[in-house]
Design a protein that fits this description.
Butyryl-CoA Dehydrogenase, subunit A, domain 3, Acyl-CoA_Oxase/DH_mid-dom, 2 domains, oxidoreductase activity, acting on the CH-CH group of donors, alpha+beta, Acyl-CoA dehydrogenase, Acyl-CoA_Oxase/DH_mid-dom_sf, AcylCoA_DH/oxidase_NM_dom_sf, about 325 residues, seven-stranded mixed beta sheet
Length: about 325
């Protein structure tokens, strides 16, 4: 058992008091996410389908549970160890120019480290027990596991202005000589095959959220069969969701067939396809239903707000530019049927 404040990938952890997300719901979601099949082992579609189903029910909860599931997969890939029972993990790997997190080894063995600095975009900051964080070590990035009850951790005040994803409790976190343990080697987090596979798991959550946004339009068309314009919008939604679903299914097959491959291009294609489909669903539902549901249906309005913010996690033109460069660099564009 690790001492208080020291992360231990293989043993129990101390749970923090949750905030806006119900403690029981988050604990159940993380426990279920931790039991999902690991990606690239023959049951990837089952994993993504479960994340999509949770996202259709509660997108904020799915966003947090997906990160926990990703942490399980990352640690399994880089360290070969399970996470502590009952723990709730985040993956805080975003880089922000306003804050830098550095890691200093305690000795020459590379296991024990101290974290100093700040990390932005820490979702679940007051809801989780542990996090995987990336920190700078010279020119490289080191992934480390940290217990969030450790001395020296300061969570900034909640300054999230948007209504969307407000309940995900994304904040800035300060680390002052906080003990941590390395997970993998320098730059191992970004170089591992599972990095891009994990990015498709996020797209599965976007997909699930989009299906929930589409549901009221299907109900409207079913109740008012004489509205051809609403039916046309529903048809367009079906095209968008059907295409996104097929891309996710094909990606799962590709990942299971070659889990060790570089799936960067595949992941960027899938994420762009699903993000575009989700945006099209929001646009079509709004045009078909008008302002009423957004203005008066709190659940529907919150779903759209959460999804719109979540979709901003897609790297948009940067990923498209990388795809374009990959097309030019390849011997063939890989467009044949």
């Amino acid at each position: 058992m690790a001492a208080r404040g020291e992360p231990d990938v293989g043993h129990g952890g101390t749970m923090r008091a949750p905030g806006r997300v119900r403690a029981e719901a988050l604990a159940e979601a993380c426990a279920a996410a931790g039991e999902l099949p690991l990606p690239g082992r023959g049951r990837t579609l089952e994993r993504w389908a479960a994340l999509a189903a949770l996202a259709a029910d509660d997108l904020v909860l799915a966003r947090l549970a997906e990160a926990h599931a990703d942490a399980v997969a990352v640690v399994a890939e880089l360290a070969g160890a399970p996470l502590p029972p009952g723990s709730r993990w985040g993956v805080w790997a975003a880089e922000d120019p306003t804050g830098v997190l550095t890691a200093v080894p305690l000795d020459g063995q590379g296991a024990g480290w101290l974290l100093d600095g700040a990390k932005a975009w820490c979702s679940g900051a007051t809801l989780l027990t542990h996090a995987l964080v990336t920190a700078r070590r010279g020119q490289s990035r080191q992934l480390l596991a940290v217990a969030l009850d450790a001395a020296g951790i300061t969570v900034a005040a909640d300054d999230w202005a948007a209504g969307g994803m407000k309940a995900a409790d994304t904040r800035r976190v300060r680390f002052d000589r906080v003990p941590a343990r390395a997970v993998g080697g320098p730059d191992g987090y970004l170089r591992r095959p599972g990095f891009w596979i994990g990015g498709i798991g996020v797209a599965a959550c976007w997909y699930g959220g989009a299906t929930a946004v589409a549901a009221p339009l299907r109900e409207r068309v079913g109740a008012r069969g004489d509205d051809p314009h609403a039916a046309a919008h529903l048809g367009a939604v079906d095209v968008a969701l059907g295409g996104a679903r097929d891309v996710l299914r094909a990606a799962a097959d590709a990942v299971d067939a070659r889990p060790e491959a570089d799936h960067a291009r595949l992941a960027r294609r899938v994420r762009a396809t699903v993000a575009g489909a989700a945006a099209e669903v929001i646009r079509r539902v709004d045009r078909a239903l008008g302002p009423g549901p957004r203005a008066r249906d709190r659940q529907h309005s919150a779903r759209i707000a959460d999804l719109e913010v979540y979709l901003l996690q897609e790297h948009a033109e940067r990923d498209l530019a990388a795809l374009g460069a990959a097309v030019v660099a390849a011997a063939e564009p890989d467009w044949s049927l």
